[in-house]
Amino acid sequence: MNRANANAVYLVASGDLRPAANQRCWAAQQEMEQKLGFALRSLGCEVIRAHPYDPGKQHGFIDSQRYGMKVFAGIPHDAPVVVAEAVWQYTHHVLPGLIQHRGPILTVANWSGQWPGLVGLLNLNGSLTKAQVAYSSLWSENFNDPYFLDRLETWLRTGALQHDMSHVRVYAPGATASASEQVGIEEARALLRRQAILGVFDEGCMGMYNAILPDELIHPMGIFKERLSQSSLYYEVTQTPDAQALEVYRWLLQRGMRFALGEDGSTELTEAQVFEQCKLYIAALRIADDFGCDAIGIQYQQGLKDLLPASDLAEGLLNNVDRPPVMARNGSRELYPGAALPHFNEVDECAGVDALMTNRIWSRMGLPPETTLHDLRYGEAYDGQFVWVLEISGAAPPAHFTGGFRGAVSKRQPPMYFRRGGGGLQGWSKPGDVVWSRVYLEHGRVKADLGLARCVALPEAEMQRRSHLTTPQWPIMSAVFPGITRDQMMARHKANHIQVAYAPSYTAAKDALAAKCACFRSMGMEVFVCGDADGI
Known about the structure:
The structure is a single chain. This protein has 536 residues and is of the alpha/beta class. The protein has two domains: 8-158, Rossmann fold (3-Layer(aba) Sandwich); 179-530, L-fucose Isomerase, Chain A, domain 2. The chain has helices at residues 19-42, 65-73, 95-100, 117-130, 146-158, 179-193, 215-218, 230-238, 242-254, 271-290, 312-318, 349-364, 460-469, 486-492, 506-522, and strands at residues 8-12, 46-49, 81-85, 105-110, 136-140, 168-170, 196-201, 223-228, 258-259, 295-298, 371-382, 385-391, 409-410, 432-442, 445-455, 476-480, 497-503, 526-530. Strands 11-12-16-15-14-17 form a six-stranded antiparallel β-barrel, surrounded by four helices. A five-stranded parallel beta sheet has the order 2-1-3-4-5. A three-stranded parallel beta sheet has the order 8-7-10.
């Protein structure tokens, strides 16, 4: 197909798979597209929306892979395409079209915490990177700031743009490994001797192509997948006695955890929902034990969403060393006693590999091994520094919260995502030193970005404001990334998720970072250090 207008730019918007989410978030998408369209037209473009608003569906998103293929069939192959995202989106809706497209591609998100548009953008970017599709990316609050407009004009003129990546350097160890690096090297070697299994409850969640690691790339590391079915997880829940769920629930109450309970299950958290979540926690441990899994990943939304309440409570408990004990079905032994069973949310296998090795390295170094992934959700400046809102749906371990279990509350998940309810683990992450990381795929290789961060304490009023700017049912880590600006982080990060683990001091964090860099490099990854890390 030939382009009819040399100044035409085709706009597409990938959305959710769930109609309720698309309908609820459509107004924010419309507002974003109006501002973005004005900016494009001010630079001489004709903006052609490649798919219309659907009155029957009550939204204008691409909401399936087949529909996305149909939309891209009507776009000239060499035309500039802008993928505009103000919401969480399922990348596989547009990935087939973008893979075959030959014109310049720009992914754009609005700088807003209201819906996970930035998260959707980063997932799309990570997926395009894995698929080896050339693209450029931008983000803006109002689409009229110089940073955005200057780069938008560059992209329209040249079909590409560059961001500042001066905060990134290749990890290059010295001739002699430090004691910390030696720990990482030894753990990588130990993995080959004592191979690990990732339990994957149905691969490929929420369109996250970037979250699937090809087997042939992780087998040489000593990591293998046990592909499990969520139907077996559901069945195990149905076979779990009520009395055992009650024991888990009482254990949590005794630890001081709170549950924001109500009576209307369609909009409120009920005890019946919590009991099912406790059964899911038990079921996950038993199936993991059946297959000898070292870490597991559950598709917390798709697959189980029509059968069970959200799995977030179970996920957060699994990631905590101090958690309700679970016995084997015959009561003969405790499962994974005194240890976390690392869980990678949304079956993000990149995070699964990261969580597995973080747990082993931190345990070896005598550090608290609790780890989780967060979404890189939003951020604003506060008191002279940029503070990110790292936020996940509830799978954060209570050990990360100020007050532990006493600082945790379970609130009903948003009905537009979770029809059958269920709560997560909500709390404010405690101040302290953090090592962050992300494993990703680029040019057919497994790579990793790592760095240091600080979780900072913000006033309660500011935390509440940020919580309500995003999703108030979900936990927050208020993170500062020294040596990395907001735009550098957005330009570099190859995923919606970021892995985090605490260290008791800056020195301990630096040592753990060195160990993890050496471990990943010894596993065959190309490793990059981002931001200030004192020469690592």
